[in-house]
Amino acid sequence: MKRYVVTGGAGFIGSALVRRLLGHGGGEVHVIDNLFSGHEKNLEDVRSKVELHKLDIRDYGGVAAAVAGADVVVHLAAIPSVPRSIHDPVPSHEVNMDGTFNVLRACAEAKVRRVVYSASSSAYGDTEVLPKVETMLPRPKSPYAVQKLTGEYYAGVFHSCFGLETVSLRFFNVYGERQDPSSQYSGVLSLFMRALIERRAPTIFGDGEQTRDFTYVEDVTALIWKAATVPGVGGRVYNAGNGDRYSLNQVWDSLQKIEGVSIPPKYGEPRGGDVRDSQADTTAARRDLGHDPQYTLDQGLRRTLAWYKTQ
Ligand code: UD1
Prior knowledge:
This protein is an alpha/beta fold. It has a domain at 2-175 and 216-243 and 280-294: NAD(P)-binding Rossmann-like Domain (Rossmann fold). The protein has helices at residues 12-24, 60-67, 82-87, 89-109, 143-162, 188-197, 217-229, 248-259, 283-289, 297-309, and strands at 2-7, 27-33, 50-54, 72-75, 114-120, 166-171, 174-175, 203-205, 211-212, 215-216, 236-240, 246-247, 266-268. A 7-stranded parallel sheet has the order 3-2-1-4-5-6-11, with helices on both faces. Strands 7-10 form a two-stranded parallel sheet. Strands 8-13 form a two-stranded parallel ribbon. α4 (89-109) runs parallel beside α5 (143-162). The structure holds uridine-diphosphate-N-acetylglucosamine (UD1). Uridine-diphosphate-N-acetylglucosamine binds next to α6 and β8.
């Protein structure tokens, strides 16, 4: 029986991935999570089918024990958020860099067959060209972007120097069910959803014309599965976006239309470290991994909103 380990498996993307892995059947699913931003509640309906290792990826011994015997490890555990990495850089540095090194080292020691690493579109920074293609020289603008990019470089080097099969996926602003809206550092769409349901104006930092390639979580977990299983892609880096881009103003307009309300947003100062425009070139992921996003933004927003309303 195959054994899958998901670091950050009690988080927003991780818990969606755990459901997908269990849905494929025939495998054992282990989760490593310190429950810092993940929640056991995210795994409520599948809790009896999952082994949860409550530990921090900064604990090498704990990680090594938890990945022993794994066939596939998907490394999602991180302290996300560009502004958090600016306001409080030490924890995000330790988790996103030292923690990632620990996971890769433990996987190499355990001879894990494939490791999928959650890299970030933030690596591109404000490179002029859109959409962003993997061959561009990265231009990280924040500690978070540097940390995620360093993890990606490490994943590549663990492949070339230690023979560990790694695949890095650069996520582009993932949204969907279970994204936690409770912090100032939460993803913008989770904050928009909560504002909409509470009939409050969201705050938009800057003029709202910045654009993002918002990617629905189910499309991301489908791609992770492909990155975990397609042969011959060890050491590679792929964009994991949808291939479109929308401004924050457009998305807030769409949400108001879906709900049939009119709530003008508040505008605040632009946020430090923010990238202006982000859009994935999905050519390589489609060609090599069979990436095939299924959800338009409108479909993803409707499904996500329906879930938030049940909470
Ligand atoms: C960045 C990465 C993304 C990564 C995420 C992890 C880029 C292009 N994307 O997302 O791949 O997964 O970090 O944290 O670098 N905003 C508001 N009002 C709010 C909150 C945010 O206007 O209340 C704005 C931000 O200023 C930003 C946009 O919304 O312009 C998106 O912000 P956020 O959801 O935090 O994600 P990114 O920083 O773009």
